[in-house]
Amino acid sequence: MFGRIFSTIAKRVTSSRLLLVLIIVLQVLYLLPALKQTTMGGWQDSIASTEVESIRMYRSSQSLDLNGYPEDDAVGSWHRANDIKMAQAADKLLDRWDAGDANGYFAAAAEYYLMSAKVQGYAGSVYNLDRAAFYQALADSGATQTYAVSSDAPALLYAAMGGKGLFMFPSGAIPIVYSSQGDGIYRYNSQVELLFWTVPLLAVCALGASTQTKQRLMTQAPLGARRRMLYGAASSALLGLAVLALICAPTLILQAVRAGVDDASYPVVVGSGASLVVSTVGEALLKSAVLYMLIAFTFSLLAHLSASVFDSVAPAVVASLCMMALPLAPGYYGEFSSYREVAPWLPSTYLWVEYAAGSIDSAMMPGARPLLGVSFVRGCVSLGAATFALSALLALLAPAGALVSWSSRLRRAASHRTGLRDAAMDKGAASPGMAAGSSHSPSSSFRPVLPTSSSLSVFASYTAALARMLLGGPALYALALIMAAALVVPAVFSVDTNVRDFSVESYKNMQLRQLYAQLESGAYAHDSDEYHMLQRQADALSGYVYSETSAKGYASLAEYERLRLEAAELPALAQNDPVGDPLRVEAKIALLEGLAASDQLELYNMSTRMPGSFYLSFVFGAAPFAFWLAPACVTALLIARHRCRGSLIQQAPVSFTVELGAGCVVASAIALAVLALVVIPGTAYATMRNGVGEMGYPVVFIQSGGVVATTVASALMSGAGVQALASAFVVVFLACIERATKSFRSVCVAAAVTLALAALAVNASALAPADSIVSVVLGWLPLTYLDVARVVGTAGYGLISGCGVSAFAACIVLAASLPVMVAAVYMVVRAQRARSLRVRDSSCVIRI
Fold first, then answer.
1. Which of 177, 267, 636, 741 is within CB 3.0–4.6 Å of 746 for a Cys-Cys bond?
2. Cβ distance 698 to 622 under 8 Å?
3. Within 13 Å and on the Cβ side, how many CA atoms surround 198?
4. % of the chain residues with pLDDT over 90
5. Are 612 and 690 within 8 A, CB to CB?
């Protein structure tokens, strides 16, 4: 039976033309690095000549003065002995280079760089120790060749070589491919290559799981639901791995013919936290295969679970894409990553397999030291746990057929409505409602005889039918699950809240020490204004560093920041401690004064320490505004899709006003209900863990050229109201677009353009001067207020720049825009109807 399921899924996968095109494109991308022309002729060509030349210059220069160290000094003797050893290692390295002895050169280079690390100390130890470990691994393996470019590598080494530049395009305009390090220079981001492997895996698993929807596979393999789902998941995973092998096969065969297969014992040196791990190419490839197998089973089980629960693979595809997007975040694998505590345990981290399995670096250096804790064993544990959990859920939920009945319920409901409509038509044809002497056929002049009812009852019945249709599909449930899961992550795993600007150690070791140094330098007379200002700043900052209570400390730090503003008027001090933006300093003072109001308030440096109220306000600002508008966009798009596809024609005929009003009410109500539900799990967990929290906790941000100070309670209440209006605005706008264009594609484009323009308006409003004409114009645009978090403020310590004028202005602008849009679309629809009537009348005249 497994063979029958496997063959059925294989036919579905191989019949997909899009997958075939994807495979061909990926094969070409994988082949391109092997086709690059190279002038490398041997191991001496692959090693940078600057390395050997710099060592020659070191030996020929006068920098090594052995007579410069006193013989009776222990420290000098130590330096003299180590310099002699380093010089001897350099001589040995150059001799082996000139003799063309590759293995001897590797051993001498390891000794040289080890001595360099010992002599230079901490400043050069990391670089030198890494190179020493790399060369020592080459020497121990007996290797006689190195490869600096992919096209020279044999087949096994080509497969294990990471960072091939598979997505290296001529331009640096794609953010996920070319990431800036803060210096304005765009560099190739090799971690984007995880998409090269995960996208085809996901495509195959989704195609395989699609055979489980709508009872397709049940007719091919009549067996229990649990076995059918598990067999299907295993088949899809195996086919996904086969597709990966198919992508690599042409290039690896070419490299095997051109450069050989080579030895699987070639060394691989990879970073693992603070240390280096030495393995082999064979071991790295085996680890990669194991991790890819676990990833394939994770994707496949997730897709089959989605097919079992939702009768659709779309939720699984969305969830998998979110998994892929997380490791692409800037600095995700960095030493100071905001995810450093949780990333080693997340399955998403190991989608970039070479971080855990190891790879050969094309620059002939050990791979970058990854996030601390990321390892092959932990990757197997993380992905294995995800696989086991998904298998258990699939085995538990697969037999429950009622959970997969959304599409079948919709089909049964549609069939039922069609039957009622046909019965009504048959009854109407024989009723006296048809004129006896009519010259038209009954079918052409039929109008269903509907019971008279009030407008309110028609509106209520149409609204209920529309709500049932929306809630009958899986899209809203999948969206709610994904949003709730995303909002739970910061409550369960630690996320840095950026409290470095309030670090006691930083103030003690930097600012306070600098103040005392300036006072003791004698640069300022004791009776000068500068000297008195420095004394006052030092006293205030000492009060924060050595305060007995947090309230006194915050008050002292607020006084210090206030003195910094005063010191900015003294040119001599302003150069040493530039204030920058005075508004940000004033905002920091307002926040500190709010914290000093009570001894019960504290700084939350990790999201896991936040109480419920603070956590809710924090995640409201941490998530992008499109995240909070997603329910409104999805519900509006679903209604537009049903209308454009004719799914609502079978309902009772209603007027334009009822149709538009019911759609807006249903979409807005469902969107707000989804928002209310998705914040409950994370907030409840934070509340159970740390309590509700102080509702008077200060919230400070910059808006309209001034500092706004409020509280968590006020920010949450204002945010709820403005978010409701923002969601209603999006729903009404998209509904009006659908009514005016009758095109679902136009509604999708309008949704994307609206979010993009809103992002531009928000950033322009935050950056524009408060008294400029641009700021005034943007203050009256509804798009400016769609980023609600930057309108009402949120809990945190980033002191964000808000947008718009105020929360009250946001309510007025958004509320006023709703009737304006409705009136505009009403006039557009009336004009369209009038035009169609004129066209029809003119056509009738032509016929006559």
1. 741
2. no
3. 27
4. 22
5. yes
Report the distance separating Cα 333 and Cα 353, nearest Å.
13
Average pLDDT over residues 670-684: 92
In order, the DSSP letters of 39-101 are ---SHHHHS-HHHHHHHHHHHHSS---GGGS-TT-HHHHHHHHHHHHHHHHHHHHHHHHHHT-
Asked whether the beta carbons of 712 and 694 are under 8 A apart, the reply is yes
Please name every residue paired with 269 in a beta bridge, in sequence order, or none if there are none: 278
The residues near 404 (Cβ < 8 Å, ≥ 6 apart) are: 307, 308, 309, 310, 311
pLDDT for residue 564 is more than 90: no
pLDDT at 406: 42
Q: How far is CA 21 from each of CA 1, 8, 247, 309, 654, rounded to the nearest angstrom? A: 31, 21, 12, 30, 46
Burial group, residue 722, by CB count within 10 angstroms (0-12, 13-18, 19+): buried
Would you state the structure tokens that stand for residue 779, as one six-digit string? Answer: 């203050």
Residue 827 φ/ψ, nearest 5 degrees? -70, -35
- The predicted model scores a pTM of 0.57
Question: 241 near 299, Cβ under 8 Å?
Answer: no
pLDDT digits (tens, 9 = 90+) for 264-297: 888 887 766 556 777 888 888 999 999 999 999 9
- Quickly state the pLDDT bin for 443 (edges 50, 70, 90): very low
The answer to whether the CB of 304 falls within 8 A of the CB of 217 is no
Torsion sign (Cα): 351, 355, 358, 363: positive
Q: Please state, rounded to an integer, the average pLDDT across all residues of the chain.
A: 78
